[in-house]
């Protein structure tokens, strides 16, 4: 990994169909300028997983990244990762702070903002089951921290506010629909994500994550 010219960061519960890595290698070989390649994630039976993926190939930009990329679907040219400074270790699952997501998007945006071409190819498929098929209280808590990470990402990268408003309105609508149809745990997860997004954008941790915010500023090396 230390010297590999191309890198990916698959989730521990995703898997690649046969031929996926060969297709990735071929895409980068065919386009020496390509910095990032993203595929589409689906369940094994072909349903979209985790995102409302764009149906057609597209450039990955500040406006399209939310429908074209997640960690498990992205492959990077290693030199571009190094040039961007790698991951921000204050973000994401396993970080000491309260921003539980956004590390891969922050890296992607740093590369794109520096002029690195990024492309989305939905024919390139990564498989992972849809986490919303089985939600529980742990999922609700995770969505709160994920929302905090995305709100922070929006503020720190000065992403378009109209787009944030659109995504937030969709999430608020989902809360109402899922509550009305009896999917109350899913509704609470959506509400937690929405609360986290607002908190992350404002830079004020929600009460449930205040202890993690405090630990990240008072721990070793802070």
TrEMBL record:
Gene3D superfamilies found in the cross-reference section: Spore Coat Polysaccharide Biosynthesis Protein SpsA, Chain A (3.90.550.10)
Keywords: Transferase
A molecular function GO annotation: transferase activity
InterPro entries the UniProt entry points to: Nucleotide-diphossugar_trans
Top-rank lineage group of the source organism: Bacteria
Name this protein carries in UniProt: Glycosyltransferase
Source organism: uncultured Quadrisphaera sp
